[in-house]
């Protein structure tokens, strides 16, 4: 799979999941509660369906590290600026600053696309290695029944949430507020899993 094709397929998959009803709200909750990178979560769903196995903790950490600097230094500052312009500083909000906020929103989306493309390349490189080692298993993956596919995505979601919960625990030790319900992240993740399960990857 060439990088350009992998990027396009991954981007279409991510958009197909994210645009389903309720998914943006669940993603936002995971982002706020755990600092979870939604792009990484969607990538891991994509990878799990491609590989036929849930990514392990080391792979999740590697994917996150691949785009950490870009996310921290580009995506998040754009997101923070867009959010801040909703209510201030003066003269915001007004028609002129609303137009500026729309421009920032477009830049944020472009920056997230760069992140998604880099993540897709990361998956493609590892898929090539795995394909050489177990081509037959990959073929079997493409024939998974829907219930097995959901179980695979659920396992992936649990591992991604656990990774970001560990990061959040470190922050809690430094004085941040403790989440009110530790099960909520998994509930939000489950809703996104069901959305991802409805997307037929091969038809994208």
Q: Give helix % range.
A: over 70%
- Output the structural class: mainly alpha
Order of helices and strands, N to C? HHHHHHHH
How many whole angstroms does the radius of gyration measure?
Answer: 18 Å
Overall pLDDT score:
84
Distance between the termini: 15 Å
Number of domains: 1
Would you kindly provide a written description of the structure presented here, covering whatever features stand out?
It contains eight helices and no strands. It has 204 residues and is mainly alpha-helical. α1 (3-18) crosses α3.
Structure summary:
This protein is an all-alpha fold and 204 residues long. Helix content is 77%, strand content 0%.
Write the layout of secondary structure elements.
Layout: H1 3-18, H2 23-34, H3 38-51, H4 57-84, H5 95-133, H6 135-141, H7 146-173, H8 184-197
Helix pairs in contact: 1-3, 1-5, 2-8, 3-5, 3-7, 4-5, 7-8
List keywords for this structure.
mainly alpha
């Amino acid at each position: 799979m060439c990088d350009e094709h992998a990027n396009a397929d991954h981007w279409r998959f991510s958009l197909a999941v994210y645009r389903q009803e309720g998914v943006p709200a669940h993603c936002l909750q995971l982002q706020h509660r755990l600092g979870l990178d939604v792009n990484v979560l969607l990538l891991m769903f994509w990878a799990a369906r491609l590989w036929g196995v849930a990514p392990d903790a080391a792979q999740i950490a590697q994917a996150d590290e691949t785009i950490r600097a870009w996310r921290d230094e580009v995506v998040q500052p754009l997101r923070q600026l867009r959010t801040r312009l909703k209510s201030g500083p003066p003269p915001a909000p007004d028609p002129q600053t609303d137009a500026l906020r729309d421009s920032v929103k477009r830049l944020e989306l472009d920056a997230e696309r760069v992140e998604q493309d880099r993540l897709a390349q990361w998956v493609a490189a590892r898929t090539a290695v795995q394909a050489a080692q177990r081509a037959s298993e990959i073929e079997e993956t493409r024939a998974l029944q829907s219930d097995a596919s959901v179980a695979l995505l659920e396992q992936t979601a649990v591992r991604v949430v656990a990774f970001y919960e560990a990061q959040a625990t470190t922050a809690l030790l430094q004085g941040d507020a403790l989440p009110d319900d530790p099960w909520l992240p998994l509930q939000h993740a489950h809703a996104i899993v069901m959305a991802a399960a409805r997307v037929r990857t091969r038809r994208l």
